[in-house]
């Protein structure tokens, strides 16, 4: 959906203030990023309470307002604020959940011991566990112990909104729906760009789809990138540096190859 941030402008005649979202060191070491993405511009609103710096905020309304500004629209104060507010209330949650679900973002990954249900499975498995209500994607790994040396188990399956296993303890790694205040600035920007593409037909009169295509390519690159390019690639590169490299555990295959 969106971006080579250096070229990202906002509709409107207001003077623009450059906001530094990323630094050169954020992108120079990533092989996934084909174009440097360093800065983008937000309009300065001289008579209001919002400045270019304050626009990088942490609520759903503020993120929607940045998208609206990019599309040349007035701001909203709530999701009940006229047709624009109602449209944002319908579109924003689905865009947010979609973006959280398509990549293993570290800031949205949690570990939880599941509650064991009293009713046992009909057959095959001994125990049933309730999946978390805030689950967006996953589980990515399941463990049958709370021991600090635990390794992922393959002895479990998902049925409906439950996990069945033969251990009476079960822990999962999963992606959950985080609040806006816990999202990094770079992910909020990704939402803004994707939101522009989703809102353009309704709120920017983009009948021929020009703005939809533009913002989709800025966010995810051209169609040939399969939604893995654009600013999304930058976000993946940043996310990849928030955790150490995966440790290779020695086994018979590893020993035979490198032993």
Overview of the structural elements:
The model is unreliable at 1-56 (pLDDT under 50). This protein folds into 2 domains: 5-103 and 179-240, no CATH class; 106-176. The longest helix is centred in the middle third of the chain and has 20 residues, at 82-101. The protein is of the alpha+beta class and 259 residues long. The chain contains 7 helices and 8 strands.
Which helices and strands occur, and which strands form pairs?
Elements: E1 16-20, H1 24-27, E2 39-43, H2 60-70, H3 82-101, E3 109-113, E4 127-130, E5 135-143, E6 156-159, E7 162-165, E8 171-176, H4 185-203, H5 210-220, H6 230-240, H7 252-258
Antiparallel strand pairs: 1-2, 3-8, 4-7, 5-8, 6-7
Helix pairs in contact: 2-4, 3-4, 4-5, 5-6
Summarize the structure.
By secondary structure, the protein is of the alpha+beta class.
- For the residues shown, what is the average pLDDT? 79
SSE arrangement, N to C: EHEHHEEEEEEHHHH
By secondary-structure content and strand pairing, the structural class works out as alpha+beta
Poorly predicted spans = 1-56
Rg value: 22 Å
- Sum up the overall morphology in one term: globular
Helix fraction by DSSP (H/I, runs of at least 4):
25-40%
Q: Main sheet, how many strands, which sense, barrel?
A: 3 strands, antiparallel
How large is the share of residues in beta strands? 15-25%
Number of strands: 8
How many helices?
Answer: 7
Termini, distance in Å? 45 Å
Largest sheet: spatial strand order: 3-8-5
Number of domains: 2
Which keywords apply here?
alpha+beta; 7 helices; single chain; 2 domains; 259 residues; 32% helix; three-stranded antiparallel beta sheet
